[in-house]
Design brief:
211 residues, alpha/beta, TIM Barrel, 10 strands, 28% helix, binds the ligand O=C(O)c1ccccc1NCC(=O)[C@H](O)[C@H](O)COP(=O)(O)O
């Protein structure tokens, strides 16, 4: 059975919709340049609404320890999702915080997938996400997808999730073609960047559950 993470939630109503319609994970973005950025206070308010069976994922871009400390403390995070981290930095974060760790691997070519190997023994899961044109500005959440055929025959070194450009209309095909056990979406359930749409969240989760 495939499960789903709804990423970049920033309002109680859309968070509640994700939970009500069956998300296994909800994501809070701690990256000021993102239209989905949440403050520590906002994250705390949102996290308090999340029941125990739904995992709270904090999304970070090469974060300092202080940022992680504050986010974990405010939102009682279950998972740290790291973008643009080296294996050494991810290992240090794991050693210090001891929380489930996901590492995003940005994909455009088949060769990009090999970056996952370096996180064996460090990350619990790799999130294969589409490489963005300007990863310094925004390494995720741009609604871009990569060629799913790149995953054909790939031997995954770790548990993994599929991300990048998914939406209610394409997620079933994405799961069928890749065999993903977890899918992640942000833009595809928004009406505009940073504004989640309850109906699209419901449609996405319904499409996943129908498989
Ligand atoms: O969503 C963001 O704004 C974001 C900013 C900085 C780093 C990561 C970010 N998102 C990470 C996610 O997990 C997104 O869900 C993932 O990139 C897929 O996004 P989309 O293609 O828009 O569905």
């Amino acid at each position: 059975m495939t499960t789903a993470k709804i990423c970049g939630l920033s309002t109680p109503a859309t968070l509640d919709a994700a939970i009500r319609h069956g998300a296994s994970h909800v994501g809070f973005v701690f990256f000021p340049a993102s239209p989905r950025h949440v403050t520590f206070d906002k994250a705390a308010e949102l996290a308090a609404r999340v029941p125990g069976h739904v995992a709270k994922v904090g999304v970070f871009v090469d974060p300092e320890d202080e940022m992680l400390e504050q986010a974990i403390a405010s939102a009682a995070l279950d998972v740290l999702q790291l973008h643009k981290v080296t294996p050494a930095r991810a290992a240090a974060i794991r050693a210090r915080f001891g929380i489930e760790l996901w590492v995003a691997v940005a994909v455009r070519t088949r060769g990009d997938l090999d970056a996952a190997d370096a996180f064996v023994g460090v990350a619990d899961r790799i999130l294969y996400d589409a490489k963005t044109p300007d990863s310094a500005a925004l390494p995720g959440g741009m609604g871009l997808r990569f060629d799913w055929d790149l995953l054909d025959g790939f031997r995954h070194p770790l548990r993994w999730a599929l991300s990048g450009g998914l939406d209610p209309a394409n997620v079933a095909e994405a799961i069928r073609r890749t065999g993903a056990e977890l899918v992640d979406v942000s833009s595809g359930v928004e009406s505009e960047p940073g504004t989640k749409d309850e109906a699209r969240i419901a449609a996405f989760l319904k499409a996943v559950a129908a498989l």
